[in-house]
Specification:
The structure holds 2 protein chains of 2 kinds. Chain A has helices spanning 37-45, 74-85, 89-102, 112-124, and strands at 7-10, 24-29, 32-35, 62-67, 104-110, 128-133. By secondary structure, chain A is α+β, with helices and mostly antiparallel strands. Chain A has 2 domains: 7-58, no CATH class; 62-133, Ribosomal Protein L30, Chain: A, CATH 3.30.1390. In chain A, helix 2 crosses helix 3. The longest helix of chain A is centred in the C-terminal third of the chain and has 14 residues, at 89-102. The radius of gyration of chain A is 19 Å and the shape is globular. Chain B has a two-stranded antiparallel sheet with strand order 1-2. Chain B has helices at residues 10-27, 41-65, 68-73, 83-100, 107-112, 122-150, and strands spanning 3-7, 75-79. By secondary structure, chain B is mostly helical. Chain B is globular, with a radius of gyration of 16 Å. Classes of the chains: A alpha+beta, B mainly alpha. Chains A and B meet through helix 2, helix 4 and strand 6 of A and helix 2, helix 4, helix 5 and helix 6 of B.
């Protein structure tokens, strides 16, 4: 998705976006606009304002990882996975056992905002969940 | 609406409530599972506040079950209205009890739960019994009200 070598900038902060000679490639992620390589070139020759900064950290694919804890019941963890992710019993059990035996399980992969929303929900159930970049993507 | 009523032994459960209440008070100012460093700096404060409010609401609901009626009848009841909150509250309190009072136990011993409370030192006996009691409540809810929680 972000392989065009573009930059992600906050739309509100982007002086370049206000100019008519920019060509957003229309890959939108929340309030951010991704610009293609050709636009990056243009930006570099027009002395972008100092506050136009790249936020590549927010780009790409992230994963939600649930970490093991020695307290929560296995049946509880299975229920939470079913409730939060809509897993069927078999999938929920598979992830629970991964957490239990390997210490962690990747339960969801996708855009950062949604990954953070899932992590928040899991925290609400008192599971230890982290969001990390998915290195495969 | 599906509802389960459980009659508890007052002489057994009543002493546990003091420990649970104390744990609830200790937990009031912090999350049972603190947020990790992976959480976006801008989100930490908002998440903390929202999660803490949710946690405190759940714990308050759990404690409210043990009201004057409970002390007359020994009965507590779960239904689709309170099941999810109570389930979460039990998890939060168990995590706190583990971290605060039961650190000397290894994970496996606590997971299997085959320790004899009578053989435990006084300071650990009640927290351990609370830990097991809260797990029992969770099991009861999951076995009987999972469909209601899942909205099936």
């Amino acid at each position: 998705m972000f392989s065009c070598g573009g930059q992600i900038v906050d739309r509100a902060d982007c002086a370049a976006d206000r100019s008519q000679d920019r060509m957003p490639c229309e890959l939108r992620d929340a309030e951010r606009v991704v610009y293609c390589a050709i636009v990056t070139t243009t930006l570099s020759t027009t002395q972008p304002q100092h506050d136009v900064h790249t936020e590549l950290a927010h780009a790409g694919v992230y994963r939600v990882v649930v970490l093991n804890d020695p307290v929560n019941l296995m049946s509880y963890v299975v229920l939470v996975f079913k409730k939060v992710f809509g897993f069927d019993e078999q999938t929920a059990r598979k992830h629970m056992l991964e957490v239990h035996e390997q210490g962690r399980s990747v339960v969801w992969v996708g855009l950062r905002e949604k990954a953070e929303a899932y992590a928040f929900t899991l925290h609400g159930w008192h599971l230890t969940a982290i969001v990390e970049p998915d290195e495969k993507n | 609406m599906k509802r389960i009523e459980v009659k508890l032994s007052l002489p057994v459960v009543a002493p546990l409530l003091d420990v649970i209440k104390k744990a609830a008070d200790e937990l009031q100012g912090g999350l049972a599972v603190p947020l990790g460093t992976d959480v976006d700096h801008d989100l930490v404060e908002v998440w903390n506040a929202e999660l803490l409010a949710m946690q405190n609401d759940g714990v308050a609901q759990l404690l409210a079950m043990f009201d004057s009626e409970f002390f007359e009848t020994g009965m507590i009841a779960f239904d689709e209205e309170n099941a999810e909150s109570i389930l979460r509250a039990c998890a939060a309190l168990r995590l706190h009890l583990r971290a605060r009072y039961l650190q000397t136990f290894d994970d496996e011993s606590l997971e299997i739960g085959d320790m004899d409370p009578d053989e435990l030192p006084e300071a650990l006996r009640m927290p351990f019994m609370c830990y097991v009691f809260l797990a029992t409540i969770q099991e009861l809810i999951i076995q009987n009200l999972d469909s209601e929680i899942l909205g099936e």
